[in-house]
Amino acid sequence: MITTITLNPMLDKTVHIDKLMRGSIHRATAMELVAGGKGINVARQLKLLGVQSVATGFLGGAVGSMVMDLLRQEGIENEFVQTDVPTREGVTYLESDSTSTAVFEPARQVPVAGVHELNKKFHALFPKSSWVVCSGSSPGSEADDLYYEAVLAAHQYGIMSVVDSYGEPFRLALKAVPSLVKPNKDEFERAFGTSLQNGDDFVKGLHHLLDLGIQYAIITDGPRPCYAAVRGHVWKITPPAIRTINPVGSGDAMVAGILYGFSQGWKFERCLTWGVAAGAANAQKWGVANSDVQEILALEYQIRAQRLH
Ligand SMILES: Nc1ncnc2c1ncn2[C@@H]1O[C@H](COP(=O)(O)OP(=O)(O)OP(=O)(O)O)[C@@H](O)[C@H]1O
Ligand SMILES: [Mg+2]
């Protein structure tokens, strides 16, 4: 089983309108609600690939209950810590020409008791897990070290860990040495105060991550080539050319795709091409992290991993 942790989930509302006009009242033509948050996206994609997972993190208030209902409707197994602090909501206004404009509410700090409760949950879930995936932002400073704690607990139970985050939670989690990290270019540059200008810079960046003790390092860059390394091997992988509809969550789909590969016992190189295909499959449609095996396979045929070292 794979445990995904989402510290800062969101009720994701998409409102369809003809055209957005500032200062006007709009009549929506349709509305969709989806349980959002990066670890939840990973869990959704894993479910569609037939990999068992459980999603945890914080949910609170009436919005938190709605997120839980949506998870139940999707059949995504979950064990969230419930707090009194309302889960945030995000609204995306989608115009008929596919232009989208989003407003995300600010997250609210979770209570310290909730932080302790989630930490305890790690110790209940990890003995039953093979991987733990820590994805996305933190709702506030009280929760910033929970990915660090999760990675330490993963070591304690001898399971693998992924950290796909940014800012303080990412910086702290690196100190616990996760098994796999997958920052995008921007997240890497911010975390290490450098600029990745060319392929050599990406490779140097990967070596920096390996030198921290990380086993699998990946740096992505949307539709541009991504780079990946394990000790002794570096790959450059060019994503397939697709018609981009919505790349939000492509990183999450990629993480799920890679873990699907590991669950099949594949070598890392094949996990990577599958992950890149899953990321591209996500970008070519509106829904988030909801591609099936056939859609991913159709794109994987077009991908070759180029061995650099
Ligand atoms: N427009 C695109 N065309 C083809 N492949 C894409 C596209 N966008 C993303 N991908 C694939 O998905 C992978 C991850 O995408 P990206 O670098 O955007 O991740 P991310 O910024 O972490 O995304 P998010 O945090 O929204 O999930 C890329 O390495 C690539 O393989
Ligand atoms: Mg990402």
Question: What is the topological layout?
Answer:
Blueprint: E1 2-6, E2 10-17, E3 30-36, H1 38-48, E4 53-60, H2 61-74, E5 81-83, E6 88-95, E7 100-104, H3 112-125, E8 131-135, H4 146-157, E9 160-164, H5 167-175, E10 180-181, H6 185-192, H7 199-211, E11 216-221, E12 224-230, E13 233-237, H8 250-263, H9 268-283, H10 293-300, E14 305-307
Parallel strand pairs: 1-4, 1-8, 2-6, 4-5, 8-9, 9-10, 10-11
Antiparallel strand pairs: 2-3, 6-7, 11-12, 12-13, 13-14
Helix pairs in contact: 1-8, 3-4, 4-5, 8-9, 9-10
Bound molecules: adenosine-5'-triphosphate and magnesium ion.
SSE order: EEEHEHEEEHEHEHEHHEEEHHHE
CATH architecture of the largest domain: 3-Layer(aba) Sandwich
Please mark out the parts with pLDDT under 50 across 5 or more consecutive residues, or reply none. Answer: none
At the first level of CATH, the class of the largest domain is Alpha Beta
Count of DSSP-assigned helices: 10
Largest sheet: 10 strands, mixed
Gross geometry: globular
The distinct ligands, each listed once, are: adenosine-5'-triphosphate, magnesium ion
Mean pLDDT across residues: 97
Work out the count of structural domains. 2
Which strand order does the major sheet show? 5-4-1-8-9-10-11-12-13-14
